[in-house]
Amino acid sequence: MATPTPVASQDRHENRSTGAWSGWIAFASTMMFILGCFHAIAGLVGIFDEDYYQVGESGLVVSVDYTTWGWTHLILGILVACAGGALLRGAMWARIVAIVLAVASSIANLVFMPAYPLWSLIMITVNVLVIYAVTAHGDRRSLEGY
User: Fold this and answer.
1) Deepest of 21, 27, 42, 116, by most Cβ within 10 A of its Cβ?
2) Is the pTM of this model over 0.70?
């Protein structure tokens, strides 16, 4: 019986860590696509139905009308969804953009919280998961040479 060599064992370990990395990145990109769609929905509601939100414009952290918030959410949603697609393709720049957009999305939802608190909390939570997935499970393939 041949015993496995340390090299074969090491190769299996590297494949497993690369698989875990790609799983987290797939998760993050899927969540970013969903976040983008959610932002777009909130944006379209703000643009077309200003009376949907119960809090008046003066009750928001930043006192602007809901049409402005709608456009902000719509544009942010498109950017987040596109960055999620680029992240799924494995672009290194997309990891940086994903983190920046997840932080921007969290801040936008924090400011928007008085208008729709549960929605904002869910969005912030998903953004934190995206940031964790992208940062904690970074590109393991760049470490193969070490």
Assistant:
1) 42
2) yes
